[in-house]
Amino acid sequence: MTYQEVLAAARTCSGPYCKACPVCNGKACGSTMPGPGSKGTGTVAVRNYQAWQEICLNMDTICENGPVDTKFNFFGHEYDLPVFAGPVGAVNLHYGDKYNDLEYNNILVPACAQAGIAAFTGDGTNPEVFTAAAAAIGANGGKGIPTVKPWDRDTLYAKLDAAKASGAKVFAMAIDAAGLPFLKNMTPPAGSKTVEELREIVAMAEKPFIVKGIMTVAGAKKALEAGAKGIVVSNHGGRVLDQCPSTAEVLPAIVDAVGGRMTILVDGGIRTGIDVFKALALGADAVLIGRPFVTMVYGAGAEGVKTYVEKLKAELADTMAMCGAHSLADISRSMLYGF
Amino acid sequence: MTYQEVLAAARTCSGPYCKACPVCNGKACGSTMPGPGSKGTGTVAVRNYQAWQEICLNMDTICENGPVDTKFNFFGHEYDLPVFAGPVGAVNLHYGDKYNDLEYNNILVPACAQAGIAAFTGDGTNPEVFTAAAAAIGANGGKGIPTVKPWDRDTLYAKLDAAKASGAKVFAMAIDAAGLPFLKNMTPPAGSKTVEELREIVAMAEKPFIVKGIMTVAGAKKALEAGAKGIVVSNHGGRVLDQCPSTAEVLPAIVDAVGGRMTILVDGGIRTGIDVFKALALGADAVLIGRPFVTMVYGAGAEGVKTYVEKLKAELADTMAMCGAHSLADISRSMLYGF
Amino acid sequence: MTYQEVLAAARTCSGPYCKACPVCNGKACGSTMPGPGSKGTGTVAVRNYQAWQEICLNMDTICENGPVDTKFNFFGHEYDLPVFAGPVGAVNLHYGDKYNDLEYNNILVPACAQAGIAAFTGDGTNPEVFTAAAAAIGANGGKGIPTVKPWDRDTLYAKLDAAKASGAKVFAMAIDAAGLPFLKNMTPPAGSKTVEELREIVAMAEKPFIVKGIMTVAGAKKALEAGAKGIVVSNHGGRVLDQCPSTAEVLPAIVDAVGGRMTILVDGGIRTGIDVFKALALGADAVLIGRPFVTMVYGAGAEGVKTYVEKLKAELADTMAMCGAHSLADISRSMLYGF
Amino acid sequence: MTYQEVLAAARTCSGPYCKACPVCNGKACGSTMPGPGSKGTGTVAVRNYQAWQEICLNMDTICENGPVDTKFNFFGHEYDLPVFAGPVGAVNLHYGDKYNDLEYNNILVPACAQAGIAAFTGDGTNPEVFTAAAAAIGANGGKGIPTVKPWDRDTLYAKLDAAKASGAKVFAMAIDAAGLPFLKNMTPPAGSKTVEELREIVAMAEKPFIVKGIMTVAGAKKALEAGAKGIVVSNHGGRVLDQCPSTAEVLPAIVDAVGGRMTILVDGGIRTGIDVFKALALGADAVLIGRPFVTMVYGAGAEGVKTYVEKLKAELADTMAMCGAHSLADISRSMLYGF
After folding, report:
1. How much is the ipTM here?
2. Domain B72-335 annotated CATH 3.20.20.70
3. A215: distance to nearest CA of chain B, Å?
4. Which residues, in sequence order, are CB contacts of D150 under 8 Å at separation 6+?
C-alpha cells in the first residue's frame, strides 16, 4: 500500500473527527477536541507544521557520491531512523472506536520495532494502558519508551514500579499534560512537578528518563538539573496550552543551552523526512511524530506503519544526499538557509 | 448556560448590527457605525484582536503544583479577576432596543459585582445615564468606575458633582471620545483637554482618577503629570480614530515609561483569559473588555455576565498554571516568547 | 450628494474599465490598460494604496481643544487643503466617452478652484489639451498647474510658450511619462531628460517649475540641481513602470535629502484625509490625488468635486485634532507610530 | 502571433499537466510530476517566481534619452539579450507527446539562434538526445550549450566525447540532477561529484564549462576551485529538492563571493524582461528561462520562440530606460529599491 492508500483506508474508520488529510497540518481539525485538534483557538498545531515549512534547505551536490546512512543510536538501541512514534492516548475517544488504547499499542509497538523504529507509548486513567504498553515494549526487545503522565506521587510510583520489570530501557514523562482537562482538579493533584520532585522521580525510575513538554531554555535547564537524560521539545501538539510558539522556533536556543549534555528530541508538525532533516539540522538528536502514526494504524495496521516509515526514510536519505550529508552526524545548521 | 448558549441567545435580540460572533474579532462588523464597528476602514478593532493572538506563551510546567490565585486589588477593593467590563454608551443605538443605557447599566453593574469584578460605566448626552450609573455603583458597594466623557468644563463639573455623592471610589474620563461624532462641533466645545485642564478636573474629582484613551508614551506622561492615578491604554476599540496601532503594540513602551508610578489598564480585542494573561505579562495591572459584555447582557443578563467571568477566570488560571505563575504578581514578560 | 452617491452615479457612465469601487485601491482594475489600471502585473497601484494603510497614527488628545486649520500656501496662492487633483489624460479612452480631455479639464479646473483646491492638468498628443487647460487655469485666477509631458525640445517649448500667457503661476512636467506607450519611439524622441536639459526647460518656463515622477533620492537631488522648485514623488500610479516601490515607502528618505530646499508633493493611492495627514507627517508639503477626481467628475461634475474635497477636509481636520495638530505646520513624524 | 495567442495555442497541445497559464508561476502545477510541477510540497517553483516579484525597481528618468542596448557577449558569441532557454528533458512525458526531446531540440535550437539568443539543451537516458542536441548547436554556429547530466564517469565521458566535435563552444552539467528520480539508484551511481571529480570533467571537456545547480556560496567556490568558467544559480525549478530557498534570495551572496571570477547565470521563475533586469541588477551576467520556452514551442514552434524573445527584449529595454541604464554594464544593484 502507498501512503495515500493507507490514508484513504483510514478515512473509512478513523472516527468523526480526524479527516486523515492528505497533508496533516492541523487546519481541518482546528480546535476539535475530542478529536485530533488543539486547544482554544486551535492554531498551535498549524503553527507547528508551518514553522518547518518555512525553513529552507541549502542544496549542495558538489560532494562525494557515497551511500547515505540514517542509522540512529538511542541509549544503546540502534534504530534505522531518528524517528519515534509519539505517545497518544484515548484513541477511541479522539480517533474512533476501531481501537482502544490497549489494542492500539499492541499493534503500534511491534509494528514500529519491525519497521526499525520505536514508539513512545501513552498513558491513561485506566492503569492497564501504561503497564500493558510497557509489557509490549518488553516483548519487543525493549524497543519503545513507556511515557507516563504527571500523576500524583503515589499513582506515578505505582505505575513506574509496575512497568520497571517490563524490559523497557528508557522511561519518559509528559510533564505538560498538566494542561489536559482530565488531569486538572484531580485529588490528589496531578500536573506540574518541581525540580526536586522530578529528581526523585528520575531516581526512582532507575532508567534513562526523558521529560517531554519542554518549550523554554529555563525548562530544559531544570530538566537537566533534575537528572533527566533527555527532553522532548514539545507543546503537546497544541493540546495543553493555546498560543504556544512552534517547537521549531524554540528548538535552536534550547539546543544551544543544553545540547551535548542531554539527548534532545522534538515533535510538533513533523510529517516528512525533510522535516526530520531540518529538526536534526537545528540540533535535535531525533524526532517524535504523533498523529500520522494513528492514521497509519487505523488505515492499515502494521503495514501502514511500515509504509510511512519507509516513506520517511527515503525522504530523509534523499534530503541528506542533496545537502551533502552521509550520516546523521554530518547534518548541521549550515545546511539550512539563513542559519 | 454556556458561553456559546449566551451568544446564541444574544443573536436573537442584539439588533441589526452585532452578529454576536463566535469569536468577537471585529471582522464581521468592520466599519458598521451605528453598530459595534470601528471608524473609517474599520480595521483597528481587527488589529487590536489580532495583536494579542500573535503573542506566544512560554509554557513551563517544571514548577510547584500549587493553587493559582487570580485576585486583584484595585484602589482598596479586592476583585476576583484583573478584569473590568468596559464603558459602553448608546446601547440601544448600537446593539438594539432591548435595553437603553440606564437599563443596561442597572443589569451590568450588580452582575459584575456579584461575579467578582466591576464595570466601567458609560456616559451619554442624557445626563441621567452617568449619574444613574454612579448611583448603581454606589448601591453595589462602590464597585464600579463611572466614566465621564470629556465635556466642556461646566457640563463635566456638573456631572462629576452629581456623581461624587454616589459612593463610587474611582472616576474615569474617556479623553479620546473627542473623536466621537456626537461630541464634535459642540458648543461650548467638548474633547481634548490640556494637562492644566486635566489637573483641575483630577483635583475636582477628589477621588483616584483614571484617564482612558492613552496610546503614546507622551500621552501617558501627560496623564501622570496631571495627577491621574491610572490610565487605560485604549484606542476606544477603533471607534474614535481609524488606523491606530493596536493597544498590545503600544503597551510595553508605556509600561516602561510610567509603570510603577500609576495603575495601567488596557483594552482592545481582549477576549479570553489567555489575552488577559498576555496583557498582564506585558505589564498591565488589569484589563477592560467591552463588546463581549454587551453580548452577554443582551443574551442572558446577569447570568451571561457570570458565565463569561467564570470562563475568563478558568482560562486565566489555566494559563497561569501552564506558565508557572501562582499569583498575578508572578506574571512577567519572561513568560511571553520573544520578550 | 454624498461621496457614495457620486460613486454610484459614476458607475453608470465611467466606461467599461473603471468600476468606481467603494474603495479605489487598484485591485479591481489591476493591469487594465486602456482603463485605470497599472502596467505589467498591475500591482503598483495596489502597493501604493496599501502602504498608506500600514502606517499607524499616534492618537493623543491631551492637548489644547482649539480650532484646526488646514490652510495651505503654495507659491503665493492659499488653498483650503494641501490637496491637488492630479493630472489625467485621455479620459475618454481610459474612463469612457462621456468627456474628452478638454471637457474634463473645463469642469475640473473651476470645480477645484471653487472647492478651495487646485488641479494639475494633463497633456496629450492633441496640443490643444495642454493649452486649453492652461487657459482654464488662467480664467480661474491662476489656480492650477499645467503639467506637460516630456516631449522633444521643440514640442515642449512650443507648448510652454503657448501656455505662458495663460496666467498659470506654476508649471509642472511628468518626466516619468517616458514609460507611457504613446511616448515611446517618437521621432524626435520624447522621454528622459538630463539635468542640463531640465535646467534649460526650467529656465525657459520662467515660473516655479515642478518635476513629477521622482522615486529616488538621486532623482530628487537632480531635480533640485536643475533648478526645479518642487517635485512630485510619484510612480505615475503604476502606469509607467511595473514593480516600483510605493511612494509612501520612498518618501521619507527623499524628504530627508531635499526637504526644506524644495516643495515636496506626493501621490499614489492617497484616498482619504487620513492618508493626506500621513503624507504630511512623513514630510510632504501636499499631495496629489488622481483617479478619485475622475470618478467624482464623471459622477457629478463640479458637485462631485465639492463633495470629495469636503470629505477630505473633514477627515484631515478630524485626524489632526485626534493627533494634537492645530495647523499643517504642527504635523510631524512623531505623530506616526514607529517613526 | 502575440504571446497570449501562443499560450492559447499551447493549451490545445501541451498535454494533461501544463495549463500554459497566463502567468507561469508554479501555482497551477504545484507538485505535479510527471508534468511541470516541482518536488514534494511543490512550493519551490512558486517561491522562485514570487521572490522576483518582491524586488522593486528604482525608477529614475532624469538621465540621457539615448538608445538602449541589450547585447550580451558570452564566451565569444554575441547575443541580442542576456537570456538563454533552459535545458528541459523528457518533454513528451512532462508536456505531452506532440514532441520528443529530439524533435523539441531541433525546433528550439535554431529558433533561439534566429531570435538572437541560445538554448541550453537537455540530456536523457537515451544517449542520442544529448549528442543530437550538440549537433543541432553545431549546425547553428555553435550557438547553444549542451548540458549533460551527472552520470557515472564512463557514461559522462562517452557523452562529452561524442559531443565535442559538434561545434558547441561551451558545455554545462546540471549537477543537481542527483535529485531526479531516474538518476537515483543507478549502477554505477550517478549524481554528486567531488571537486576533484569535477576538475577532471572540466579538463576533459576542453571547453568553457558551466556547473548548473549551485545554491550556496560554498558550492560556488567549489565550482570555481574545480575550474568551471561559470555557474547557474539554480534549484532546478524545484524539481530536485523540495523547500529550497528561491534563487533570487541566494544570488546576491554568491555574486559577492565569486563575481568577477566566473560567469554567473541564474534561473528559476524568471518570466519577464523586468525579472531579467532584476537578476542582472543583483549581479547575474545572464539568465536561463525554462518552462515558458516549452510552452512557446508547443504553441507555435519557432514563431513562439521569436514572439517570447521579442517580448522579453522590449520589457528589458523599457525597464533599462526607466531606470537610466543604456547598456547591460550600466545595470547595478543601486537600481533596485533597498539594495
Report:
1. 0.96
2. yes
3. 6
4. A61, D156, D173, D174, D175, D177, D178, D183, D190, D191, D192, D193
